[in-house]
Write a structure and sequence with these properties.
By secondary structure, this protein is mainly alpha-helical. The chain is built from 9 helices and 3 strands. The chain has a 3-stranded antiparallel β-sheet with strand order 1-3-2. About 5% of the residues have low confidence.
Length: about 150
Amino acid sequence: MTTREWVRKNIGRYKTKTSLVKACMEESNCTRGVVYRVLRQEFGSNYKSSEDKVASGNIGDRAMSVEEFRKQYDYNYKIQRAVDNLPKDKVFVEADFREIAKVPVSHFRRYAERSEFDEYRGKAGGKVYWGNKETIGQLKDEELLQ
């Protein structure tokens, strides 16, 4: 799906231009400039920016919900959500799992090594593997993972 198609499909889902641009950048893997160019080309001045809404007194439109905030900054939440969605009978090298969880390298180790995630990870051959709780448990029982 192109950036233009994504914007057309999702334009009504976001209250502010800023939230629309961030979502589009994440989902369609494009730059901020590309999204703003598409908005200008598609809607001209008809699409009100978040700054326009604040000027008109709708400052609540710029607010981020707690859920949106968690999705962006709560790395423990991101890791938990990722392990909850891991498929059975598959294991992932830690670097791949970190990308799945969308946690920056600089924060991953601090959160991933918490004891609450011990049942989702194991070590073999000097590498750390992540997987579904049952899968990792089975591999640890078979002594294939530590």
